[in-house]
User: What shape does this take?
Amino acid sequence: MTRGVVKAPSRGALALGAIPFAAMCFTVALWDRVHPLILGLPFNLFWLMLWIVLTPCCMWGAYRIETAAGRRTPRGS
Assistant: This one.
């Protein structure tokens, strides 16, 4: 059984992962209002749905950072 080495994620990848987390968890109280309506949705619901759509974009960016960092490190390390 081959075991891989688990390395710590880079700061850039962690930051990209933290953006949607912070946007959905800590800013809801700031936008907790019904008006304005955007696309017929209360702003708070629109905000959360927007970040549900944007989260994969942030995770893709974090993945790209990590795969680029993996290519720069030598295989033996």
